[in-house]
Amino acid sequence: MFEEKFSDLVLLVGTNPLPNYVVSKYFQNQNKKLRRIWLVHSEEERNINQRGTKHLAENIRQAILGEWDEAISINYVSLSNIASAERIERDIKEYLSPAVLTSTTGLHLNYTGGTKAMAVHVYRSLEELWDRKCSFSYLNARNFCIHVDQEGVITEDLRDEVKLSLEGLTKLHGCEKSKEDKNKREWPEADAALEDMVNKGEISNYLDWVENTLKYIYFDTGKKPNNLREHMINFQKLERWEEVNNDVVNAPEYIKNILRGIPREYSPINDDGSVWIPSADVTKIEVKRRADDPIDGYLAGKWLEKYVANVIKRNIEQEDLNWPTEMNWYIKNHESHDKKFELDVIFMNGYQVCCISCTTARAEGICKGKGFEVLLRVEQIGGEEGKPVLVTCLEQSKVQKVESDLEKIRGSGDRKLLVLGREDLQEDVLWSKIIEHVKGGD
Length: 442
Hints:
Elements: E1 8-12, H1 18-30, E2 36-42, H2 54-65, E3 73-79, H3 85-96, E4 107-110, H4 116-130, E5 134-139, E6 146-148, E7 152-153, H5 166-172, E8 175-178, H6 188-199, H7 203-219, H8 228-235, H9 241-249, H10 253-260, H11 284-318, E9 325-333, E10 341-349, E11 352-358, H12 364-382, E12 387-391, H13 396-410, E13 418-420, H14 427-439
Parallel strand pairs: 1-2, 1-4, 2-3, 4-5, 11-12, 12-13
Antiparallel strand pairs: 5-6, 6-7, 8-9, 9-10, 10-11
């Protein structure tokens, strides 16, 4: 059995620790003769512009310690200059030569992580030091299998074997996760009415109505007034008030169902279906609760995140996939100067993460900006194996263009990002396209 031909596993630590976690978990489960893990990382050397990856090696160690066979030790190998073949060879010889590892039954290098120079020179050094007592492999991000140089593919799809929680994934990357959507509302009747609107194919008409009627009343030309209460009181005095109010009172039934689904204390309409206008003594908090949050937040855009999350959760449950799913995660990387970022919808297929960004915008520029954001965030926490999805309300003719433009700028032809438009939003289409993207490897 190949997996039991070595006692020492050597891993190269780059900027993405996920492959190292997956490989170490696999061999821990399969190789009962495994005794040591060697995490080869770069030292922090500012005089040669070299970033250290010791902190990521420590994250890997922490992630697996609680699940680990205590008979297996986890050790660090520090590389002083990852651009120098001579220095790498010297460092490897210091830690991993036959003179030092006298009790080993063989070494195995998985060279998925690290830089190209690290992979080449560590590979060459171990081959010279150990000859046939060293074997080599990599974790293929396209089919999620381990390929051994001398043996070929030795595993099935490891997403079915190695599981990782969302919390575990963020910790592995040195990130902190918090759920802090202060505007989060649980309005199941409104959610159901919005789902009904989508599945009836009314999304374009609904977005027009929100933009031209509802937001017009509250935000006039789209720009939020400094004093929303005063703006709404004054709007009631304008000539167009009656016309716009009638557009709300006489809205299509599917829109009335959405508005009726919002609890009264948060509703932007009165019991008779007319527009709620605050009196002069209404507090700013109530104005925010009944106008700003439901209209500029939920009805204008946040509903789409909830809709997509509900479709994902429902279908995962129906297909008994056991994929953890969350929405509105805020994540901060302690090693980065970036501000914390939000993930609208996120789920795990084994150790593979899928992040979904949602926008009701119908402008290509806004959608491209969201596309860049989700591409960046998926690579930050999911590496090459991660799958980003951008859900938009774009016309279908623009979807392919946005996706193509983003891939050209990214400089890759592997169709990493899936972009969906409003004709893809009905539940069966949305789910089938996302599941195909996630399961389909590359």
